Amino acid sequence: MKPIEIAKDIYDVGVNDWNIRDFHGYSTYQGTSYNAFLIIDEKITLIDTVKKEFADQLLENIAKIVDPKKIDYVISNHTEMDHSGGLPRILHYIGEDKPLYCSKMGLKNLSRHFPQQWNYHGVANGEELSLGKRTLTFLETRMLHWPDSMFTYVKEDKILFSSDAFGQHYAGHEKFDDQLGDEIMFHAKKYYANILLLYSPLILKLLNNVTELGLEIDMICPDHGIIWRKDPGRIINAYAKWASQEPEQKAVVVYDTMWHSTETMAEAIAQGIVEEGVIARPIHIRSSHRSDIMTEVLDAAAVIVGSPTINNQLFPTVSDFLIYMKGLKPKNKIGAAFGSYGWSGESVKLINQELEAMKFDIIDPGVKIQYVPDQDGKNACFELGRKIGKTIKR
Amino acid sequence: MDKYVCSMCGYIYDPKQGDMDNGISPGTKFEDLPDNWKCPGCGASKEKFKKMRTQ
């Protein structure tokens, strides 16, 4: 991807990773990008690098604008290796004596990723760095989404370099929000659901801080996906909404099945929910990716989980989903369990234990049916669905 | 009563507030928190906390 001027003397010199389809357990059907930014000022400054394999491309992109050896400062907003992976190559090329600015936690964390003794400068929250015409302000954003995370703000241009926040896993020739339609909100939502959901309370605090600090923001430049230049308010409002975790009138019925019996139950439950006028989808785990299921969970009022019992345990894909969801700490959810079983039937109890640990409001002990559901069994599932639908509407 | 700060994420435990979401009532000193208490900010264990120096 060739460099793009995003403002006068400020360039996105990052790269597209067109082919990545699995981003540590998150499915990326449209690849992703690693954005890195070059500011041409008295002090030529590079903000973030790219994943290691793309470091040469980053150097080539920079070289189209300026001789990389002329870079004076490097900023690392975040230690994760999709943004820091290029540091060894870049710093080796431009000179390992060049100052590397990062947060205090970034200092610790980078040194646990890379053995090189770079010229680290750990900055404090609110610290400023003059580049000449422009001033950088560093804003610590611990746990959004790592301890080392920080934003870099350029007050003269009103640009916020937001590291992973406000990003999307999307590779395309479009680099700006006005170049893509509403589809970008889907990518932003999936990203929030799978990476940031558990930090929602921190996100609300951050959004408050930004308002209190009176930061004017004309453009938000995340490290993945498109840049918000036409309407940065749009993604900020979306984050406020997702962080508040106020659910829609919607349920997801997530399950796996060995002989279609638990599946039959799932579909009957979903039918019952829909009967009450609430949106409901049955989602077969093995036909889906956990990261897509989680995107649906984000704004669902109810998560109903079904599993067969195999060797006295949950079907393993259901455990995978429950552990994954647990880590993301969804709030304000109604839950219930169901499953078909052969003889021991522990699955409903095990699911309820997990949902309780997640502080779900479990509104029914759940339904378990031996082997193939008969009409009475299907009716019980349908009625559970209606109960869920009614509860959601209250 | 001293406040303690998580060295991983910066979360501040204030004994006056406790940690109600996790069943710790206000007035609980840091030293009296259960050994398996985790940082509400990032999940780090009690050992990662340091006493805050009062200004």
What does this molecule look like?
The complex is a heterodimer of chains A (394) and B (55). Chain A has 394 residues and is α/β, with parallel strands linked by helices. Chain A has helices spanning 55-63, 81-84, 87-94, 104-111, 183-196, 200-212, 232-244, 261-275, 290-298, 316-327, 347-357, 375-393; strands at residues 4-7, 10-12, 15-17, 22-23, 26-27, 32-34, 37-39, 45-47, 73-75, 99-103, 119-123, 128-130, 135-140, 150-154, 159-161, 219-221, 250-255, 279-284, 302-306, 309-310, 313-314, 334-341, 361-362, 367-370. In chain A, the strands form six sheets. Chain A has a seven-stranded mixed β-sheet with strand order 1-2-7-8-9-10-11. In chain A, strands 17, 18, 19, 22, 23 and 24 form a six-stranded parallel β-sheet that branches. In chain A, a hairpin with a 4-residue loop joins strand 14 (150-154) and strand 15. In chain A, helix 5 crosses helix 7 (232-244). The longest helix of chain A has 19 residues, at 375-393. Chain A is elongated. The termini of chain A are far apart. The model of chain A has no long low-confidence stretch (mean pLDDT 97). Chain B is an all-beta fold and 55 residues long. Chain B is 0% helix and 15% strand. Chain B contains no helices and three strands. Chain B has strands at 4-6, 12-13, 49-51. In chain B, strands 2-1-3 form a three-stranded antiparallel β-sheet, with no helix packed on it. In chain B, a hairpin with a 5-residue loop joins strand 1 (4-6) and strand 2. Chain B starts with a strand and ends with a strand. The mean pLDDT of chain B is 91. Chains A and B meet through loops of A and loops of B.
